[in-house]
Specification:
18 kDa Sin3-associated polypeptide, single chain, five-stranded mixed beta sheet, transcription corepressor activity, repressor, transcription regulation, alpha+beta, 159 residues, SAP18_sf
Length: 159
């Protein structure tokens, strides 16, 4: 008998065959102030000015999106630059938009949200992405001023 080779492929549960599935347009709004845009910036048909249009799939990770933003924003390539991601979506009960933070990544450091996908973040096609970029200088300046909490701890809700 001839030997049989068994090949086991590990597939991510939310993997998309990017050769067969058409990408969708994700409208991304970037803020380099370290803070997200205000939700009122999205109301009444308006959007913030700093827009990137990215064609992507639902299995794209936050780290992949950060890499795409770094391609067009050279300042964001510096080690220690933080990216805070939020989804902006219409409220079904009122004619306004809501914002929900979905994760953070840091240039040059591995983090727990790096591999989070848009599907895991419950993105719906048509939602906007708001990315707040904080350069590493801002973090070191804040730590010198006596701020000891990290950004992620500061942003969490108290229990």
């Amino acid at each position: 008998m001839a030997g049989v080779d068994i090949i086991i492929e590990e597939k991510k549960e939310d993997a998309v065959d990017r050769q067969k599935v058409c990408p969708f347009l994700l409208r991304v709004f970037v803020s380099t102030t370290g803070h997200h845009h205000k939700t009122m910036d999205y109301n009444k048909g308006n959007v913030p000015q700093n827009e990137l249009q990215i064609y992507t799939w639902k299995d794209a990770t936050l780290n992949e999106l950060a890499l795409l933003v770094k391609e067009v924003n050279p300042e964001a390539r510096r080690k220690g630059t933080k990216f805070a991601f939020a989804l902006v979506y219409p409220d079904i009960r009122a004619p306004v938009y809501r914002m929900r933070e979905i994760g953070t990544t840091t240039t040059g450091q591995k983090g727990p949200d790096d591999l989070k996908t848009l599907l895991q973040a419950r993105l719906s096609i048509g939602d906007y992405m708001d990315i707040a970029i904080t350069p590493p200088d801002s973090w070191t300046a804040n730590s010198r001023k006596g701020y000891t909490q990290s950004y992620s701890n500061h942003r969490q809700r108290p229990y």
